[in-house]
Amino acid sequence: MKRLKVNPQTPEPEVIAQAVEALKQGKLVIFPTETVYGLGADGLNSAAVRRVYEVKGRPFTRPLPLLIEDLAAARRLGRTWPEAAERLGRTFWPGPLTIVVPAASHLPAALTAGGDTVGLRCPDHPVPLALLSGLGKPLAAPSANLSGHPSPTTAAQAARDLAPQVAVVLDGGTTNLGLASTVVDVTHRPFRLLREGSISREQLMQVLEEEVVMAGSNP
Q1: 61-106 per-position pLDDT tens digit
Q2: In b/e form, how buried is each residue of 129-155, taking b as 16+ CB within 10 angstroms?
Q3: Could you read off the pLDDT of 34-47 as tens digits, one per residue?
Q4: Can you tell me the distance from the alpha carbon of 103 to that of 120, in angstroms, rounded to the nearest whole number?
Q5: Distance between CA 20 and CA 162 in Å, rounded?
Q6: Cα maximum dimension of the chain
Q7: 38-42 and 191-195 as β-strands: parallel, antiparallel, unpaired?
Q8: Cβ neighbours of residue 17 under 8 Å, at least 6 residues apart?
Q9: Sheet hosting strand 117-121, strand order edge to edge
Q10: Residue 5 CA to chain centroid, in angstroms?
C-alpha cells in the first residue's frame, strides 16, 4: 500500500498517475472529496466493483454510487435521462448531490445490486476530478469506511480500517463538509429523498418545482 500526500487544490500529476495506474489494474484507491474520503474502483470493472463490497463488508444488496466528471458523462450512464436529473445536475453539480436515475444496460450488475437504477455524482474537488480524467471512466466510490462505521474525514481514519486492502491512499488533509452527499431518486414520482446531506429537501423542491418526499414516508 502506498500512502501519498496530494495537494487538494492542485493535485500533483505524478501522484495522480500512480493512483490512476492502480485503478486501471483493478485495484482500490482511497481519496478525498469535498464531502468525506471515498474508496474508489473502476466503475466499469465488475471484479473491482465486487472488491469494494468485500473490503467494506457492504451487503451486495446495497448499490454503489458512481462519481462522474460532468453532466455529459452522467447522461451516458443513464438508460434514460429525466428532466429532473438535468435540472438538478445543472444546479448542484459539481457538488454534494447524488442523483438516482435509470441505469444504462452496460453497467456491472454488482454496481447496481442487480437493480435498474444507479446513483451519480459529480464531485466538487480537484482530486477525484483528476482521477476521473486520468481513468477515463466513472469511479465506483462509496465512503472509505467499513460498513456501519462513521464516514472518514481524514486519510488516517480511512486507512485505519481499509489500508491493508487498498493499493493507494491519497492524503489530501481534512475534507471540507464532513457529511455524505444528499441522495435523491428521480426515477418515479413523487421524487424521493433517500439521504439528506448539506443540500436540503427544500432546496431540491425549489429547483424541481415539485414535491420531494422522504423515503419511507407516505406522500
Answers
A1: 999 999 999 999 999 999 999 999 999 999 999 999 999 999 999 9
A2: bbbbebbebbbbbbbbbeeeeebbbbb
A3: 999 999 999 999 99
A4: 10
A5: 18
A6: 51
A7: unpaired
A8: 134
A9: 2-5, 168-171, 29-31, 38-42, 139-140, 66-67, 117-121, 97-102, 182-185, 191-195, 212-214
A10: 21
Please report, as a single letter, which amino acid is at residue 196.
E
| Grid cell 415539485 in the structure block, residue | 210
**Which is it for the CA torsion 13, 17, 19, 23, positive or negative?**
positive
Report whether 143 contacts 37 (CB < 8 A).
Answer: yes
Q: Which domains does the chain have, with CATH numbers?
A: 2-214 (3.90.870.10)
> Is pLDDT of 219 > 50?
no
CB distance 32 to 144 below 8 Å: no
